[in-house]
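P.,

For your records, the input lines for the assembly:
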Amino acid sequence: MTPTINRIQNGNSGSGSRATMVQVTSGAPPRRRPEMRYTFTQNLDKTLDRDRNNEYNEDDSEGQHSERGGSSDMTNRTQGRQMKSGEPPDNLEFSYGADSHASDHLTEPPSAKSSSGTQSTGSDDLDMTLTKTTNSGLKFQVRLCVKEEIFRVVKFIDIPTMLPFDMAPNSLCGIVIKYCCKEEVTAKQGAKFWMAARPMVTKSHTHVRNNYIKGMQSVYLGKLYSCHDVHENDLYIFCSLMQT
Amino acid sequence: MMCMKMIYTYFVHSCKHDRPVYFLAPFIELFCNKRKTQSEDHYSDHAGKQILSEGLVPGKIEQFLMGARKNTTNYVAFIYRFAPVLVSDHIWNDSKKMHEALMNNRFDDILTVSDEAFMLVVMDNYIDPWHEKMLLQKDKEERVSTINVYYTSWL
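Structure tokens returned:
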């Protein structure tokens, strides 16, 4: 097994800023690379070329438009189909919405990466069909479940012991699945759902606990503007508690 | 430094063992029923605040909370003041719901043992910074109130 070195040069760039990429491959059979590992310039050129081709194809025939697509969203979906048919994808864009209109919404939960951010972007928020649970919707459901069901019983979550996947009705995972999914869920679907909901559970549980502590603090502190005539500390507490 | 979770488990155990909430249920109902008339409501609220103002200070907090099993008045005042934060106000002030829960011996539906232990832990853990914050606010309030302005905006 001898390693081979492939030197790839980008012809479009000028001589001063010539982009060169060295690719070292071993003699072993090539592994399937993830789609996100492509360089930016290479992908930019290819997407531009694809857009140009799509414009030509739109002029030629409208039937091919459904296969290739003109917009970026449609491009993602067509690439998802290309991956399914076995052809290697030659674009870097992550095709999340490939099966977005699946009949069962649990087959494709929102990714945990997008759920951690404050602003949820992507095609799932723009999807107006009611067949799929959006990221923000799932977050809302999990927060309600934590507030109404979980926090009444558990005030502190021990992550390694309490949060592994478990379909038992008394476990945290089982409570969340039962609350959020109205239909019966198989173990595989539940595991996929729990992968997406688990970080939300920990985050919202901490959030709810801090909110309650803040509420108790506000009850203890009270409002202070009516205490101007009281100078003793004990009496001051009495006065501040009176205002709440 | 001990973890808050460990203290919480200790409080849960002690609350389960002694069950003060169930023992205090009739007293809590008395408090709730007194809200019907304004004068009685004011009286009960006034008494509860006075009890809490004497007990919820950093030097006396341990004696106040740990001795609450014997002195039920303190404990009722404490729960009556802080439980509506954990149980939402619209549930706590729903007298019909409260009456049903107390009559059927199902007070656990409203305020769980875990809630009670959490209240005790939070009070035990945060009483020092809260008290200090309150004193600082008081100083600030006094400082602001002593400043005299030169010109008024209304004339």
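Two observations worth noting. Chain B has nine helices and no strands. Chain B touches chain A at residues 4-5, 8, 46, 49-50, 52-54, 56-57, 81-82, 85-86, 112, 114-115, 117-119, 122-123, 126, 130-131, 133-135, 137-138, 141-142, 145 (CB under 8 Å).

Regards
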